[in-house]
Amino acid sequence: MIWLVTVDPELVDRIVASTGLSPAEAARVIEDVVTFHAEPVDELVRRRHAHLKTYGVRNPEIFARIADELADRVVAAPPLTERQIRRIIYT
């Protein structure tokens, strides 16, 4: 899914001042970060499950890791039980 992001010019100015990036580069970085954090919980859960499975991680560890990752996000998702995570993955 593609998200349209409106970047705050003041934030762009702040990033430019603190990093030395050009305004266009700063805006692109901000858009990337906002888009990353705007990923819906169900999409994130499915993506992380598939990624971890690729590396041979077993489901019990995956479910626990995903639950921990969700709790640590900038705008944390609501706490999900292992059952809720499993239902997202397999529906």
Account of the 3D structure:
The protein has 91 residues and is mainly alpha-helical. It is built from five helices and no strands. It has two domains: 1-38, no CATH class; 41-90, no CATH class. Helix 3 crosses helix 4 (59-71). The chain is elongated, with a radius of gyration of 17 Å. The mean pLDDT is 89.
Summarize the model shown:
This protein has 91 residues and is mostly helical.
Oligomer: single chain
| Structural class designation | mainly alpha
Alpha-carbon Rg, integer: 17 Å
The chain-level mean pLDDT equals 89
- The SSE string, one letter per element, is HHHHH
- Tally of DSSP β-strands: 0
User: What's the number of structural domains?
Assistant: 2
**What distance separates the N and C termini?**
18 Å
Gross morphology is: elongated
Helix-residue proportion: 55-70%
Number of helices: 5
Strand content: under 5%
